[in-house]
Design a protein that fits this description.
eight-stranded mixed β-sheet; 3 domains; alpha/beta; Rossmann fold; about 25% strand; ten-stranded antiparallel β-sheet; single chain; about 600 residues; Thiol Ester Dehydrase, Chain A; binds nicotinamide-adenine-dinucleotide; elongated
Length: about 600
């Protein structure tokens, strides 16, 4: 049966599960804890191993609802990858509520398909505890014509691990582990295991994962499981119960390590590509892992701030910058984009530089092609590149008019056009346009810039409607920040408060999966946030036929009144209101 592509984005759950300290201890013992780490096994001062989270949501009920909703062929299903983000420590008892959705389906042709689902779990104490991203590898669902998975590289440091932790799962380990919820026959029934191609029942991948979690905590944050922030990995090989393992850990920076779990004798990787982050709680659950973002004009100012923060939160970023002068002149320079890419890479992120000019059709195409060639797709486009050529209207040359429209308006069109097609095909996208208070409200000497900037909101108004069906959200930022563009416009004593980083939070929300809106405009800067909108007053119907100008003038006060003004979502809604005016009792 083919995968149900319509299931992408549909809510799954909520599912709830009550648990007590007995469940916590049972899980801990299932993943090998004992007297050596009694804090996980004794109800007095009990601590919860964070990987308990996935045991708690990986109830059959939950994972099987992904399989049923997506119409995955269960015969070929494997747990491919697992990512966990921890927002708050897991209490030792309570009720967990989990809900989420399928976010991606990738086609690996003959090899199968990847189905990715993301879940959030809340505790009955009101706190959000963790976010889980599960990648299911379905060997039998490939070739459905979907997009390819984004490419990514994982490189372990070329040196001995900083920690090696041995683990000795017993011959009976799966019998204990399965009591935490995963009662799949493959881990208990010898006949079933043989029929599935194995010598005997195999270890649960998540049981080995629990061993690794203990090993990571004892090596990096002994006795402090509440400091685990993130744990991700790929399951690469099955393990039989009773076989010895080693978890190899390389600390790469403060608060971060990479890890893998291997078979101690054969040295084969059982779990690989592991990342482990730890530190004090920060509720950074807006993440961009597996997302590919293109930011234009990202070599400086606002675009640079967006690119750095997106990459820090896991996005693979195409850093575009033409490297021109403030007025768009000059033959271009690679260094602004390259510097940002180097900074991202030095912090362990993924990025690629692109030096194309957004003002040309080919430039726009090449920018998007860079995303495809390097990372395989595009999920987020932030149209940010900009120039200024201010002149009062009477002194405005056609060149200055055209150049500004070319970069801002046509530039956004040139990059959004190829990006939109890819987003439409894959059923996901976030497009950000950058307007300006000059366009929204007017500014002396900026007719070219104001016209281009407000035109972008028109592009958004219609594109949001065309994208809605494909889960493409289109929003607009009107920033206020100290940068090369504003250095002689904004007062210098405000520069500290006007750092571009103050604008990034809203841009990141609008770029994220969590983005709750489409078609909105936000003024953002210096910690102030507000929504700008075109609103329409209730107005009045004048006369019984075609009114004379004098009659309209007499009604000007009422026509101009903004009392009760409201925004419209689209043209048809306005027409609906106009038509409603013709019902006799509404006429004035
Ligand atoms: P900035 O000059 O610091 O950065 C803009 C970047 O865009 C530069 O690095 C430049 O090289 C690049 N660029 C220019 N033309 C390009 C082209 N044709 N192709 C590719 N790259 C190009 O400016 P900023 O203040 O960070 O502005 C970013 C965006 O925000 C612009 O669209 C601007 O109009 C808008 N904006 C800024 C403010 C503000 O207060 N800074 C206010 C309103 C709107």
């Amino acid at each position: 049966m083919a995968l149900n592509l319509e299931s992408i984005g549909k809510k799954i759950g909520p599912y709830t599960r009550e648990y007590t300290w007995n469940d916590v201890v049972l899980y801990a013992m299932g993943v090998g804890a004992g007297f050596s780490d009694l804090e996980y096994c004794y109800e007095k001062d009990l601590k919860v191993i964070p990987s308990f989270s996935i045991a708690s949501i990986a109830d059959f009920e939950f994972l099987s609802s992904i399989a049923v909703t997506a119409r995955i062929n269960l015969a070929g299903v494997l747990h491919g990858e697992q990512e966990l983000y921890f927002h708050n420590p897991i209490p030792k008892e309570g009720t967990l509520t989990t809900e989420g959705k399928i976010t991606h389906m990738y086609d690996k042709g003959d090899k199968g398909a990847l189905i990715i689902a993301k879940f959030h779990t809340f505790h009955s104490n009101g706190q959000k505890l963790y976010t889980s991203i599960v990648t299911i590898f379905s060997r039998l669902n490939g070739g459905f014509g979907g997009p390819e998975a984004p490419k990514s590289k994982f490189i372990f440091p070329d040196r001995e691990p900083d920690f090696i932790v041995e683990g000795h799962p017993s011959e009976n380990q799966p019998l204990l582990y399965r009591l935490s919820g995963d009662v799949f026959q493959l881990h208990v029934d010898p006949d079933f295991a043989k029929a599935s191609g194995f010598e005997k029942p195999i270890m649960h991948g998540l049981c080995t994962h629990g061993y690794a979690c203990r090993a990571l905590i004892s090596s990096l944050i002994p006795g402090a499981p509440e400091k685990v922030r993130r744990m991700t990995c790929r399951f690469s090989k099955t393990l039989y119960p009773g076989e010895p393992i080693e978890t190899l850990i390389w600390k790469t920076e403060e608060g971060k390590a990479v890890w893998k779990t291997i078979h101690r004798e054969t040295r084969e990787e059982i779990i690989t590509n592991g990342v482990f982050e730890y530190g004090d709680p920060a509720s950074e659950y807006i993440r961009f892992d597996n997302r590919v973002a293109v930011v234009t004009g990202a070599g400086a100012g606002l675009g640079r701030a967006y690119a750095l923060e997106l990459a820090r939160r896991g996005a693979k970023v195409v850093v575009n910058d033409y490297g021109c002068k403030r007025d768009g002149t000059g033959s271009g320079s690679n260094s602004p984009a390259e510097d940002v890419v180097n900074k991202i890479k030095a912090a362990g992120g993924e990025a690629v530089a692109n030096f194309d000019n957004v003002a040309t059709t080919e430039g726009g195409q090449r920018i998007v092609q860079t995303a495809l060639d390097t990372f395989g797709t595009i999920d987020i486009l932030i149209n940010n590149a900009g120039i200024l050529r201010d002149k009062s209207f009477s002194k405005m040359s056609t060149d200055n008019w055209q150049a500004v429209l070319d970069v801002h308006l046509n530039g956004a069109y040139n990059v959004s056009k190829p990006a939109f097609q890819i987003m439409k095909d894959k059923g996901y996208g976030r497009i950000i346009l950058t307007t300006s208070a000059a366009g929204l409200y007017g500014n002396f000497g900026q007719t070219n810039y104001s016209a281009a900037k407000l035109a972008l909101t028109g592009l958004m108004n219609s594109l949001k409607l065309e994208g809605a069906k494909y889960n493409i959200k289109v929003n607009t930022i009107a920033p206020l920040a100290a940068s090369r563009l504003t250095k002689d416009i904004l007062p210098e004593d405000l520069f500290e408060k006007l750092q571009p980083e103050f604008v990034s939070p809203m841009t990141l929300i609008l770029s994220s999966e969590e983005c709750p809106v489409t078609g909105n405009i936000y003024n953002v800067g210096a910690g102030c946030f507000n929504r700008a909108a075109v609103v329409t007053g209730p107005g009045a119907v004048i006369g019984n036929g075609i009114p004379a100008p004098e009659e309209v003038l007499a009604g000007m006060e009422k026509i101009s009144s903004m009392e009760g003004a409201k925004p419209y979502d689209q043209l048809n809604d306005l027409i609906g209101d106009v038509m409603a005016q013709f019902t006799p009792d509404k006429k004035s």
